[in-house]
Amino acid sequence: MTNQSSQGKSVIIVGGGIIGACFAYECSLAGLRTTLVSQHRADSGAIATSHTWGWINASRGNGKDYFDFRHKSMHLWNRYCATLSDIKILGRGAYVWDQTDAALKAYANQHASWGYPTEYIDGKALSTRLPFLKDIPISAVYVSSEFGLEGDSTSRALIDASGAPHQHAYVHGLILDGTKVYGIMTDRGALYADEVVVASGSGAASVLQSVGIQFEMQNTKGLLVRSKPIPHFLEYLITAPDFHVRQDGDGALVIGGPFDTDQGQNTDIIYHQFAQKLLTRVEQAIDCPGPLEMDRYSLGERPIPKGKLPQIGRVTTRHGDQLSGLYVAVMHSGMTNGPAAAQAGVTELISGARDPLLNF
Prior knowledge:
Elements: E1 10-14, H1 18-30, E2 33-38, H2 45-50, E3 55-56, H3 64-83, E4 92-96, H4 101-113, E5 118-122, H5 123-129, E6 139-148, H6 151-162, E7 166-168, E8 171-177, E9 180-186, E10 189-192, E11 195-198, H7 204-209, E12 220-227, E13 237-240, E14 243-247, E15 253-256, H8 271-285, E16 294-302, E17 311-313, E18 326-330, H9 334-351
Parallel strand pairs: 1-2, 1-11, 2-7, 4-13, 11-18
Antiparallel strand pairs: 3-6, 4-6, 5-6, 8-9, 9-10, 12-15, 12-16, 13-14, 14-15, 17-18
Helix pairs in contact: 1-6, 1-9, 3-9
């Protein structure tokens, strides 16, 4: 339903990845006139989305405020999936055992008290539920509400559903008059709007630099491997100490190494060999219904703002002036956070009211 106060307002979204796609979809629900511009750059949000493992979660390591934000986003994802048939859930339910037994038990207890459906189980129960496991840990935590999504196809489904015109162009910078941003300059010319949303992941820093905003990032790199398809056997997402794995709709296993490890720091890594070792490690730990052969691997950059938490909202210059007409939405874990960031952001664009869930 169109919000009366939004009628006639125009928005340009810079970034064609999952955050930009979620903003486009929420803008369409609010009745905003929206144009989506994807960067022709290797540091754009769409590149990060292409390299995501696609785990939708509100897992451990977050304070209660940020947990609440992520948990709401999970609920919104379920609404998106129920509404848009082109979004396919690939694996529902997640098992994790990449911490000590004491840490897993503490995580399960804490998040259960927050209303998150965590279940602590011992290794014997885990081996019954996952009979293909060859390496049995002491314990694990199971979360029934977590699931997997493919970044590229999910983004396309949201952009298509939004109906927003989608352009591919290099964004040189923002068009500024005093403290008002009123458009972007691209290699195809200028585009103008009432609001510009910068949701271009690692590419946001250079766009914001064009108006003197120093947007600091602390990005890391992660390796992701896809096997050739094998028969379907893995219904869940699995996170072990030295790998994480799920199975996609074509039957390929999608595999990463330890979470939060920066594979870009070690210049001595030969990535093809490292990718092959990940495949071998999964074969050692899991009795797969066929040999694992590599299809491809990728080294993706995680767009992480300084301080690691999402940066969502208005921005100020170094002189303390807030720029009107400009909104920023940059974060890691965009696959989980996209819907909540976009819904809260669009509300703020329309009414000026900031959602308390953004105050983490």
